[in-house]
Design a protein that fits this description.
By secondary structure, the protein is an alpha/beta fold. It has 16 helices and 13 strands. The strands form 3 sheets. It has an 8-stranded parallel β-barrel, surrounded by 5 helices. The longest helix has 25 residues. The chain is globular and about 60 Å long. It binds 4-nitrophenyl beta-D-glucopyranoside. It comes from Micromonospora mangrovi. Keywords: Carbohydrate metabolism, Cellulose degradation, Glycosidase, Hydrolase, Polysaccharide degradation, Signal. Belongs to the glycosyl hydrolase 1 family. This is Beta-glucosidase. Pfam families: Glyco_hydro_1.
Amino acid sequence: ESSPEPDGALRFPPGFAWGAATSAYQIEGAAKEDGRGESIWDTFSHTPGRTRNGDTGDVAADHYHRYRDDLDLMAQLGLRSYRFSISWPRIQADGAGRPNQRGLDFYRRLVDGLHERGIAPMATLFHWDMPQALQDAGGWESRDTAYRFAEYADAVFQGLGDQVPVWLTINEPKTVVQNGYLWGHHAPGRQDPQAAYLVAHHLQLAHGLAVRALRATGQAGRIGPALNLHPCYPADDSAEAATATRLYDGYENRLYLDPILTGAYPQDVLADLGPDSRMVKGIRDGDLDVIASPVDLLAVQYYTPIYVTGQGDTVRKWPTSEAEWQQIHPEGMYDILTRVTRDYGRIPITITENGLPCPDTLGADGTVDDAGRVSFLRDHFAAAHRAVADGVPLESYHVWSLLDNFEWAEGYDQRWGLIYVDYPTQRRVLKRSAHWYRDVIRNNGL
Ligand code: PNW
């Protein structure tokens, strides 16, 4: 059903859900409204030198006030699915206690608006905006934070669970570990490998506890993790590169996939960390059972491959985008999807992020010509189609991102949206890619 049509078209399976993705801190703004508490990204972005041009998410794309217009734009595109995240500090200002009804109400209005337009909501519980009060109590370095997360998740399930068919627990635990705790260029800005991998374990534990919290409600919603996966390839034919690539893959992919899908951490990574590491010492009896609580689907985010040398360094093989970490290699999409299905079985997969930053400008004629994004998406859609034809149970695809937004440490300089945001006026303009994507959705393929 997904094979090439006689006309050469690449048609996706019936019911395939085309979508777009965002996250709360990157688009909402309204940082002090309706009882929202502070998150570590408020703190980080307001610390001089942490973000490009000192940009913050205080206003962002003002989605908190403009969500109705944004819903109409989604309907104009023909989206079948919309992935957004819930801001923990809007629900619990200090990360604990009774949920803030005004925070829940905002997401209720958003979700109702999606249903009215025939768009399926997909909600991420945590997309990096940790309440500052919890960070002050240790953040993800503290095991207790995983239990606080499960309480927050339960409050969200109680408030919205009847209307949200798919939940994602934690967005890209790896990015929290690496950018937040190894390299320090994301909040909370730490550079401490011992802390970083302990954080990895606590993120996994939080994921498993949230899965159990959903099951305990008896609700019908489906739930899974949202992992950014990087296909790792040896940079050359040497035996050293092959060995180094294997371990690199452990740290990039298996450290996050294996505990959830097989109930065990990868032995090579544990051995490399060593028995005295804070992470290995932090794993308690029963933790892996919690982490391996059965999930309903796996959310995969793919942006770039990684090429590894015999020394364990990385090199570039393909042209990079405006994001220096991103090499453009659509084949990597095929490789990661087929590999996950081969190694972990036929668990349903959703692509929750894939996209490209472009130097988009608003032309004198009022259009935005992002031809590079169109060809990037076309090539990645085609690679995903081949994976489906080869048996990968892929059910949906969310482009990152619906709108230009606050790209973390890169601020507003990097534009990732299908829709252009003119920040001084907050006017939205559909880029060429948005018009093109609407046709892809209408045809259910290329
Ligand atoms: C994702 N990498 O982060 C995030 O989930 C989004 O919030 C973000 O805006 C988007 O990708 C674009 O950057 C990533 O190093 C961070 O490969 C780093 C990588 C990939 C994704």
